[in-house]
Amino acid sequence: QVRLVESGGGLVQPGASLRLSCAASGSILRINAMGWYRQAPGKQRELVASVTSGGSRNYADSVKGRFTISRDNAQNTVYLQMNSLKAEDTAVYYCNADLTNYSIVRRAYWGQGTQVTVSS
Fold first, then answer.
1. How far is CA 48 from CA 27, 28, 82, 101, 108, in A?
2. In a structure prediction context, what are the per-residue pLDDT tens digits for the chain, which is 120 residues long?
3. Running DSSP on this structure, what letter comes out for residue 76?
4. Which residues contact 45 (CB under 8 A, 6 or more apart)?
5. What are phi and psi for residue 62, nearest 5 degrees?
6. Separation CA 77–CA 91 (nearest Å)
7. Computed from CA positions of residues 110, 26, 58, 82, in that sequence, does the dihedral angle turn out positive or negative?
8. Which backbone phi and psi does 9 adopt, to 5 degrees?
9. What whole-number distance in Å separates Cα of residue 120 and Cα of residue 117?
10. CA 79 to CA 97: how far, in whole Å?
C-alpha cells in the first residue's frame, strides 16, 4: 500500500509565500515522477508542476517564475515553494506520484489535498 501525505497549506495574503510538502511511503519500488496539481472551485484539476526522477521539471505557464518544485529522492518527498502568491492561486493542491510498487505495477497515486487560500 502506498500513501502520500501533504502538508503546508494555509491562508496567506497576496504576495506572500508558502511551501508545500508531500511525503510518499509504503510499498514503493521506484518513483518515476512526482508533482502537484490544483483544483479551484468550479474548475478542472490542473497540473501546477512536476519533476521526474532525473530532475526534469515542468511548470504551468501561470506559475513560472513564482513556484519552484524540488524533490528529495532519499526521502521520497516533493516540495512546492510558492512565492508571490495571487488570489488566483487559491485552490486545493494535490500531490501526485507516478510510481512502481512492490507488485511491479506502475500507476499514479494521489494525496488527500491541502487547501491554499490567498486573500487579503
1. 26, 24, 11, 24, 16
2. 899 999 999 999 999 999 999 999 999 999 999 999 999 999 999 999 999 989 999 999 999 999 999 999 899 999 999 999 999 999 999 999 999 998 888 999 999 999 999 999
3. T
4. 37, 38, 39, 94
5. -70, -15
6. 21
7. positive
8. -70, 175
9. 10
10. 12
Cell numbers for 110, please give them. Answer: 494521489
In order, the DSSP letters of 7-60 are: E--EEE-TT--EEEEEEEEESEEEEEEEEEEEE-TTS--EEEEEEETT--EEE-
Give the β-pairing of 114-118 and 10-12. Answer: parallel
- Identity (one letter) of the amino acid at 10? G
Dihedral (CA of 24, 76, 115, 88) sign = negative
